[in-house]
Design a protein that fits this description.
Blueprint (H helix, E strand, L loop, with lengths): L7 E4 L14 E4 L6 E4 L2 E2 L4 E3 L2 E6 L2 E5 L2 E6 L2 E6 L3 E5 L4 E5 L2 H4 L2
Parallel strand pairs: 4-11
Antiparallel strand pairs: 1-2, 2-3, 5-8, 6-7, 7-10, 8-9, 10-11
Length: about 110
């Protein structure tokens, strides 16, 4: 997803052994150098999700919803539908959970 300043931002999965359950990894892509830098976010994040949707709410925020979430269970990992909706503030790098799902969250 392209954001202010011409840079891209994306979440990156990775190999199963590199997973950190409950964490949503976010990276910034510099479109001039093609270098990806990991961003340190805080707040209530969606967790380790994939097959989700993301849209720019405005130049400073991204809304993330849907898909599947991977969590730790007693015998390994569990994959369940991700029912939450979250906003990432790209200036402060803070996640927040919002009510109402993808279409009505703000």
């Amino acid at each position: 997803m392209r954001i202010a300043g011409g840079n891209g931002i994306r979440g990156v999965g990775g190999y199963p052994e590199a997973r950190r359950h409950g964490e949503t990894r976010v990276y910034k892509l510099n479109v001039d150098t093609l270098r990806m830098d990991r961003l340190s976010t805080r707040g209530e994040s969606p967790g380790w999700i994939y097959k989700h949707r993301a849209v720019a709410v405005n130049p400073q925020e991204i809304r993330v919803w849907g898909g599947l979430v991977v969590t730790e269970s007693g015998k390994g990992e569990s994959v369940t539908p991700h029912l939450g909706c979250f906003i990432l503030d790209l200036i402060r790098l803070v996640w927040r959970s919002v009510q109402g799902g993808a279409q009505t969250a703000s």
